[in-house]
Each structure stands twice: as C-alpha cells, then as structure tokens.
Amino acid sequence: METKIRKIDKNQIDEKVIEEAGALLREGKLVAFPTETVYGLGADALQEEAARKTYEAKGRPSDNPLIVHIADYEQLKKIAVNIPPETDILAAHFWPGPLTMIFEKSALVPYGTTGGLDTVAVRMPVDPVAQALIRAAGGFVSAPSANTSGRPSPTTARHVEEDLSGKIDMILDGGTVDIGLESTILDMTVSPPMILRPGAITAEMFEKVIGQVDVDKTLLSEESTQAPKAPGMKYRHYAPKAKLIMVEGDLREEILAIRQISYEADRKGKPIGIIATSETLPFYNHGIVKNIGTRENEKTIARNLYSILREFDEENVDTIYSESFAVQGIGSAIMNRLEKAAGHLRIPASEIVKLQKYRRVTFVSGTDSARGPMAAELLRHCDLKQEYVINSRGIVVLFPEPANQKAEAIMKSARMTLADHSSLQFDDEDIKEDTLVLTIDESQKEKILSEYGSRDNVFTLNEFIGDDTAIPDPYGKPLTAYGECLEVLDKLIKKLADKLNSLMEEEK
Ligand code: TXA
Ligand code: MG
C-alpha cells in the first residue's frame, strides 16, 4: 500500500487535507496524526475491522486496548457509562490535554477497540490537527502511538514513516510534538482513581483538583540494587535496539561511573552510547554522547527522549548508559519510560565509583623539570583500567618553565615528548584525598608532610610499589645519565601501572 504523506500546519489548518484524511478514517482506513503527546495511529473507534487493521499495522497483540480520542466533551457520554462525578472537574482542568481516563464502556464501543475489556480509555487531545481530524472522522478515533509495537513512540512524522510506511494509508505531518511522552492514564473505575501510566499531568496536579489518587505500584520497578544479569525482555516496551542501562545514584557519582564505564569500553575498542544532559555533557570524553535536554527544564528531556532512543538505533553501539532523573513531576514519566526501555536494567553508580580509590596521580620532584614530568608522561603511556588525571609538580618552582632540554631529548628518543610541559609548584589543590601523591625521593615526601601534616595519600614512588631501585638524579650530567634515569623510571612506572590496575581488582 502506498502511504500518502500530507504536511499540515496546526496554526493554519488546510480543511481539504483534513477532509481527505477524515474520509479515509470513515472508510475504515488508517491515518497517523500528530497529538501534543506523541503521533497516534488513527482509526474509526466504532468499527471493529478498523481496530483489527490497527493491531496488524503495529504488530501489536490484539488484547492490548486502544485509546478512543474525542474532540467534544459531550461525546464522552456516548461511549462511557457510570461516569463518576469527579470526571467533570478533571475534564475542566485537563481536557483537552494529555490525560486519558478509563470508564465502563457503552455498547457503542466494539470489543475490538477495547481489547475485549468492558472498559474504555478516552482522551481529548489539545492539538488542533487532532481535533479537526477527529471531528472529520465522525467523532471517535482510536489511536495507539504510531510506532511498531516495541519501538520508541514517534514524536515526528519521520518516525512514523520509519515504522509504518507502506502499512497505513496516510500520515499527517504536523511537525514535532510538544510533550513527547504519552498521556497520563487515570483509571476512573476505581475509587480513588488510580494512575496506570505517568505522564505530563502528574499525581500532584490531580491531587490539587480532586484530592487523593492512587498510583499503580508496579509502575516503579522494584528497588533492586543487583547488577543486571540477563535483559528482562518481557518488560521491554519502549525499546531501542541497543541494550539500555540506567546508572543510578547522586549525579556526581553517576557522572564518575559513566566516565569509568565509557573509558573501559573504549579501551576494549567497543564504545558505548551515553545519554547525558546539557549540564553533564562536558564531563564525557569517550563513547557516543547524546544530549537529552537540560536538567533546568525537564520538559526538554521528555520531548527528546524517544527521538534520542531512535537516534541511537542509527549508531553502532551495543550498550547505552543513561543518567537518571528525580522521580517527581514529569520526572516520574521520564524515569518510567527510560526504565521500561532499559527493561529495568540498572547499575548503582556507587558500586563503580567505590572501585576508584584515586582519580589523580601527581608526581612530585624538586623543580618539576625532569624526573617528575618524565614519570608522568611514562604513566600516561601505560594501559590503565581507570582514567586518571596525571600531573607532575615541583617543591621549588619559582616560575613556569619548559622541561629540561636533555630530559626532552631522551624522551623523544623513546618516542614520547615533554613539549607541552610547564613546571608548576605543588599546592593545596594537589593534596586532595582523591589524589595519589608520589614523590621521586624521600626529601620531597618529608617536605609535603611537614607542610600538610600526616596524610595517607603521600608516598615515595619506591615505597608505593615496593621496589627500592634508586632513581638517579641526572641533573648537570651528560645525556647518558638521563638515559639511565629513563630506564629506571620506565621499569618503576610499569610496576606502578600494574599496582594501580590491581587496586581496582582488590576493591571488586
Ligand atoms: O498520549 C497518548 O495516549 C497516545 C496518543 C496517540 O494519544 N496514545 C497512546 O496509545 O499512548 P497506546 O495504545 O500506545 O497506549 C495506550 C495504553 C496502553 O498501555 C493500554 O494498555 C492502555 O492505554 N489502555 C487502553 N485502554 C485501556 C483500558 N480500558 N484499561 C486499561 N488500560 C487501557
Ligand atoms: Mg504505545
């Protein structure tokens, strides 16, 4: 079947296009259309056969009920019975809008539409294109999200095309949707009403209007702190092709954990995907990083969520790691969708962060012009399981100077360079507890301890690795002395790398 695509501007609706689309729906055909939440796959809700086609096009099991969309509040009484009194107040506040309410169904609604249930889900969207189409179709349009079952919901007409081109009759392209997550579903057949799916209308918003509402307890996944085992496929719904894993903890820990995971993955030549935010983007320098929006306005995150998941399907990554969001306001809906997409795979950030005893390694020599910078550069060339900030400092540095020329010459002969080095005085910034301070000889260690008091992160290099090979001081001697020094340092720094790598194992 050829899928017609018609552009439509919600601020200036072309009635001819709406009439064409409405006629298709009245004939029992399928038309995808924009709503404020996500694109819907429209069909006439009162025709059993149209519902069957909907399930077929989406590849969705036919016991999963559809939402019936209306454009005028009076229409509700035709499809629902025993409508509870709070409905008027809720409708006055939230309709038209991203709210779906569930009622007992009337005889008018076929079981094909409700997946065999005696209840019907009803929503009145605010998008003017959706409203015009519903009216043109006769008033009742069933519309699941217009994606292939199991894929992320569509937030642009392009997404609909990707999934359903050739399977449906028409797509109305009204641009990018506003909210980006499906409507809140509120079950009105129980008292108090119960939220079955979180969305842009939150529990807090309902409570201001009708008092207490319940929340379906199964929405938020069990508080498991277990590392993920096999992907829980049966829970995956809004699923990207790659495996998605939620990293959970406080934001600082999440960043550190994702940095570590992405560093390790790069080292193994298997880069990962990262879902980051405007605020955290600069912290990631490995992997394929995508910005989901700003933490200052979580609506941006909701709007980008599904398109980011789809974008990752175009990337060559097996695993995506995502930062987490606070479960409040629209954050509840964001986390609900992300956790579903992740099949509830999660890693506590603290488990990874606790493996990192140190995050920096700082070598300290007298003037920071030869042995310290050489040691630092040697360590940068080692294969480390963790990404360290590696520096060198001096005990007496009067002003910044480039590295000693002989030190540079000998490093060049070993295909390394100190060309970017500029000497720096050791100071308060360098003694923090996440820093492993390694001095070239005993005198520098004593100097630091006498200045800062007793510390358990300051060692001589020999002491830390348990090797007493003396590091010769080549200063004022010929180039060969620098060569001998490099040889000793090279051996010691390799041992240091092994020791740092084994520290991570010990913690595990
Ligand atoms: O924002 C939305 O609600 C979008 C747009 C297109 O309006 N539609 C949407 O439909 O998300 P869909 O089919 O992707 O999701 C409908 C959800 C399903 O989880 C379904 O199980 C539930 O609503 N649902 C529908 N009727 C129900 C009923 N009678 N009782 C319980 N759940 C119902
Ligand atoms: Mg859906």
Structural commentary:
The chain is α/β, with parallel strands linked by helices and 508 residues long. The chain is built from 17 helices and 21 strands. Helix content is 35%, strand content 17%. Strands 1, 2, 3, 4, 5, 6, 7, 8, 9, 10, 11 and 12 form a twelve-stranded mixed β-sheet that branches. A hairpin with a 6-residue loop joins strand 10 and strand 11. The chain has three domains: 212 residues, DHBP synthase (Alpha-Beta Complex); 110 residues, Rossmann fold (3-Layer(aba) Sandwich); 148 residues, 3-Layer(aba) Sandwich (Rossmann fold), CATH 3.40.50.
Main sheet overview: 12 strands, mixed
Task: Identify every distinct bound molecule in the structure, by name, code or SMILES.
Answer: threonylcarbamoyladenylate, magnesium ion
How many separate domains make up the residues?
A: 3
Under CATH, the homologous superfamily of the largest domain reads DHBP synthase
Q: Overall mean pLDDT score?
A: 94
CATH names the topology of the largest domain as DHBP synthase
Helices, by number, come to 17
Rg from alpha-carbon coordinates: 31 Å
Based on CA inertia axes, which overall geometry fits? elongated
What's the total count of β strands? 21
Low-confidence stretches: 222-235
* Helical percentage: 25-40%
Query: What is the CATH C-level name of the largest domain?
Result: Alpha Beta
**Judging by the overall fold, what is the CATH architecture of the largest domain?**
Alpha-Beta Complex
Strand content: 15-25%
Structural class, from helix and strand content?
alpha/beta
Cα-to-Cα separation, first versus last residue: 57 Å
Organism: Candidatus Mediterraneibacter faecipullorum
InterPro entries: DHBP_synth_RibB-like_a/b_dom, Ptyr_pPase, Ptyr_pPase_sf, Sua5-like_dom, Sua5/YwlC_C, Sua5_C, TC-AMP_synthase_SUA5
EC number: 2.7.7.87
Domain YrdC-like: 15-201
